Amino acid sequence: METSLLWFCNWSTLAVCAALKLPQISALLAARSARGISLPSLLLELAGFLVFLRYQHYYGYPLLTYLEYPILIVQDTLLLLCVFHYSGDVKQAAPYLAVFSASWFVLTLQKWIIDLAMNLCTFISAASKFAQLQHLWKTKDSGAVSALTWSLSAYTCATRIATTLMTTGDLTVLVRFAVMLAFNVWVTATVLRYRKTTIKAE
């Protein structure tokens, strides 16, 4: 039973993450605007993904428990390029991409660096979600933000709580996913709320 549940959680998470950011990218391309999307939120999320992937790889955790992260990083990078493109200059993304690339090597120079980064990762990821919430509260407009992407993110956090409990039991990882689940649900609800407000106004 537990093996079947683990198999389902792992593979359903991978399937969802394979297309997780596509609704957001599609919505942005359709709107031809980055309206409603918080750049600081996106950058913090990308940083959190990178740290988490490096941590899991460094400690040799089972590949299936974090295989979605390279996929998410690629999708977030594409989304970041789209945001910069519609904000005026895609070349502005270059310094950020350079820092992210360099950090991949810096994070594992010393064990304490990756451990500290992982402990901060929860705060970084939470800050990324909070930045998106603040942007929504400020503009009261969900714009091109995809509620589907955020709700799928909530699902993957829930499945990763289950897989972590069944495999590594890493408390730091569990806390991160629990916090991310709460924030993803919160952002989804906020996006839907302001979408309804916009429809009524129209």
Secondary structure tally: strands: 0
Overall mean pLDDT: 86
Order of helices and strands: HHHHHHHH
| CA-based shape | globular
Low-confidence spans: none
- Based on helices, strands and strand pairing, what is the structural class? mainly alpha
Q: How far from one another are the termini?
A: 50 Å
Q: State the helix count.
A: 8
Structure description:
The longest helix is centred in the last third of the chain and has 31 residues, at 171-201. Helix content is 80%, strand content 0%. Helix 1 (2-18) runs parallel beside helix 4 (68-87) and helix 3 (39-58) packs antiparallel against helix 6 (111-139). By secondary structure, it is mostly helical.
Task: Supply the key terms.
mainly alpha; 8 helices; 202 residues; single chain
Topology of this structure?
Layout: H1 2-18, H2 22-31, H3 39-58, H4 68-87, H5 93-106, H6 111-139, H7 147-166, H8 171-201
Helix pairs in contact: 1-4, 1-7, 2-4, 3-4, 3-5, 3-6, 6-8, 7-8
